[in-house]
Design goal:
5 strands; alpha+beta; 2 domains
Length: 202
């Protein structure tokens, strides 16, 4: 029988007038066993599995982007080559100097190299996320938000001590402003994942 989730840990009861936001609590899927392990300084197998799943997502996204990027590189090269071969004068210009052919080949190599480098960096980032150590921060919660006019996205920030956790949902109904929390998290590069948390007893 699977362990029951600790409802108090997954999200404190809101004050009068507060409402839970849809999806806010779903991202904090931890059990009392997970919290207990984090309090003792280590991650459970389930939490390690979550990190590996995140790492696979990073690699999958990178490969998809690489396929699209390589497609644009090949499309651009095909268009340029087609323009050169469209008439006799342009064909003569293309083959008039080896430098023209070398330039076209160099553009292909640079494009393919950039795509390959992005895949390599994504793999390193994924490996780092999968091995991310457990960290802990204690402090009083503050909330902040910012809006990007370019993307039209509002980011919501939960600030505890020197750490800032960012989300696309408002977390003020999960982490109460002015209350003290202990947050257990893993951090690697731009990825900062909360593994469990608890509100300090008054």
């Amino acid at each position: 029988m699977p362990p029951k989730k600790r409802r108090a840990a997954a999200g404190p009861t809101p004050e009068a007038g507060e409402e839970y936001k849809p999806g806010s609590l779903a991202i904090f899927d931890f059990t009392p066993d997970d919290l207990g392990a984090n309090q003792r300084g280590y991650l459970t197998d389930k939490q390690r599995g979550m990190l590996r799943s995140t790492a696979r997502g990073i690699q999958s996204c990178s490969l998809s982007s690489a396929v699209v990027g390589m497609g644009f590189v090949l499309l651009g090269a095909t268009i340029i080559l087609g323009l050169y071969l469209s008439n006799e004068d342009s064909r003569r210009a293309l083959f008039s100097s080896p430098a023209n052919l070398l330039g076209l080949a160099a553009a292909l190599v640079i494009g393919a190299g950039a795509v390959g480098l992005s895949i390599l960096l994504a793999r390193r980032q994924a490996a780092s996320v999968a091995r991310a150590p457990l960290k802990v921060v204690h402090g009083t919660v503050r909330h902040d938000r910012d809006y990007s006019a370019r993307s039209g996205i509002t980011s919501y920030h939960v600030i505890v001590g020197n750490e800032k956790f960012s989300y696309t949902d408002d977390m003020s109904s999960v982490f109460r402003e002015g209350k003290a929390y202990t947050i257990y998290f893993c951090h690697s590069g731009p990825y900062k994942l909360i593994m469990s948390f608890e509100e300090a007893r008054s």
